[in-house]
Amino acid sequence: MQFHGMNSEDARKFAEKWLPAWSGNRPELLASFYTEDAIYSDPAIPEGVRGRDSLQLYFVKLLGRNPEWVWVHRGSIPIQDGFLNHWRASIPVAERTVVAEGVCTVQLRDGLIYANHVIFDRSELLDALSGG
């Protein structure tokens, strides 16, 4: 069996292009990083979204609610077909900024993401969103 994970330098280069697409409410740009048959999940949709078209619709809502958030790559670990992305997100909520840290799997085929699963503790974010 041959392992095809992405080394740290290649992961960083990919993340430097991909993560900025999460900011500025550009769902079409963000969706362009994913394959037609991509699967994406995060704590809000653990069952996931399948397919680029459905994913873009989800991104329209998600990015529309969070146009000013900023995502930063903090490091990576190679996994099959890609990398485990360690990230930090600064998320403006009302008059404060929530800083979340987490990981996500980023698995690629022909330079596009076919699987992306986001994992983080969203307790502080939910508290801020509820006015706490």
Structural write-up:
- This protein is an alpha+beta fold.
- The protein contains 4 helices and 6 strands.
- Helices cover 28% and strands 45% of the residues.
- Strands 2-1-6-5-4-3 form a 6-stranded mixed beta sheet.
- A hairpin with a 2-residue loop joins strand 4 (82-93) and strand 5.
- It is globular and about 50 Å long.
Structural class: alpha+beta
Mean pLDDT: 94
| Structural shape | globular
CATH topology grouping? Nuclear Transport Factor 2, Chain: A
Q: Under the CATH scheme, which class?
A: Alpha Beta
The CATH architecture category equals Roll
Number of helices: 4
- The Cα radius of gyration reads 15 Å
Question: Separation of termini?
Answer: 50 Å
Count of individual domains: 1
Please state roughly what percent of the residues sit in beta strands, choosing from under 5%, 5-15%, 15-25%, 25-35%, 35-45% or over 45%: over 45%
Report the major sheet. 6 strands, mixed
The overall strand count is 6
Unreliable spans are none
Described by its quaternary structure, the protein is single chain
Order of helices and strands: HHEEHEEEEH
Amount of helix: 25-40%
Main sheet strand line-up: 2-1-6-5-4-3
Outline the secondary-structure elements:
Layout: H1 8-18, H2 27-31, E1 34-42, E2 45-50, H3 52-65, E3 70-79, E4 82-93, E5 96-109, E6 112-120, H4 123-129
Parallel strand pairs: 1-6
Antiparallel strand pairs: 1-2, 3-4, 4-5, 5-6
In short:
The protein contains four helices and six strands; from the N terminus they run ααββαββββα.
